[in-house]
Amino acid sequence: MVSVRWSVDAVRDLEDIEEMTSRRIVEKTQWLEENFSTISPERLRRDFKNSYKLRIGDYRVIYSVRSDVIVIEKVGHRRDVYK
User: Fold this and answer.
1) Looking at the whole model, is its pTM more than 0.85?
2) For 14, what's the count of Cα atoms within 13 Å in the CB-facing half-sphere?
3) Residue 72 and residue 30: Cα distance in Å, rounded?
């Protein structure tokens, strides 16, 4: 079983997003925590090569996996999150 931890930056990112969308993002990260052992994470490249992404509509959650902890590092709209 893995657990999800949010970085300070990711929490700030989440606070800047409208409430309904941020609620969907939190729900999806809870789903990720519960189903992580059954999915194939989508690995990123280049500057984010040790990270993975989770898609929620037009928003992306950038996370890394450390042992049995998923660390949410960044949250944002798909056009901005990779900058």
Assistant:
1) yes
2) 20
3) 11
CATH 3.30.2310.20 fits 3-77, yes or no: yes
For the chain, how far is it from start to end, CA to CA, in angstroms? 31
Domain spans of the chain? Answer: 3-77
* Contacts with 58 (C-beta within 8 Å, 6 or more apart), sequence order: 77, 78
| Alpha carbon distance 10, 40 (integer Å) | 22
Tell me the β-bridge partners of 77. 59
| 53-65: pLDDT as tens digits | 999 999 999 999 9
Dihedrals φ, ψ of 19, to 5°?
-60, -45
- Output the six-digit token pair for 58: 């037009």
Find, among 61, 67, 64, the residue nearest to 26 by Cα: 61
User: 42-66 b/e with 16+ CB inside 10 Å = b?
Assistant: eebeeebeebbbbebeebbbbbbee
